[in-house]
Amino acid sequence: MPRTELEKMQAGEWYCCLDDELEARRMAARRAVHEHRVLDPDDRGSIGPLLAALIGEVGAQVYIEAPFHCAYGFNITMGDDVYINSGCTILDSGHVTIGARSLLGPAVHIYCAEHHKDSVLRARGQEIARPVEIGCDVWIGGAAIILPGVTIGDGAIIGAGSVVTRSVPSGSIVAGNPAKAIPVLPG
Q1: SS3 of residue 20 by DSSP
Q2: Is 36 a catalytic residue?
């Protein structure tokens, strides 16, 4: 039986992102992030109602500053006390987990889609979704970019402006492009 592009995407298989069902889901996400952006902060609270309903799982005391952008929303899981600063983008074609008490600085980008290396297939919208997992108590500095398939362990720190191309062990500090371990200094 033929599988939908959404089913392929969720299974971590190659899929066509130019699919009508996927476009409808991206449109729902655009509506939700638009509402989040334009609501008066007193009316919006920590997260706009449409965005809260769209996101797969939102823990207690999650705060998302506006503006915020996500591709689908339903693939995002956030633990308690997560803070996402202004200008963050989560392109959640794959599952994105953000552990409790993690902090994302302004303009952090998280990408799950890996486009096909064959230019003809890439032009036809072929991509594959790789999950991103961010542990608990992680601090990601402003304008950092997290690439598809990366896991960031509990308590890790990602320096501002870093491009994280590989998984980061718990308790590590990484910085740079590509991000590399830097020594943890006492104090």
Answers
A1: helix
A2: no
CATH class for the region spanning 5-180:
mainly beta
Mean pLDDT by 10 residues, the chain (187 residues): 89 97 98 97 94 96 97 98 98 98 98 97 97 98 98 98 98 97 78
Give the pair of three-digit tokens for residue 41: 């902060």
- Answering whether pTM is above 0.85, one says yes
Phi, psi of 58 (to 5 degrees): -125, 120
Alpha carbon distances (Å) from 21 to 35, 42, 91? 22, 34, 17
Which conformational region is residue 12 in: left (phi greater than 0), alpha (psi within -120 to 50 degrees), or beta?
left
Burial (CB < 10 A; 0-12, 13-18, 19+), residue 98, is buried
Catalytic residue among 34, 36, 69, 115: 115
Two tokens at 23?
Answer: 């476009």
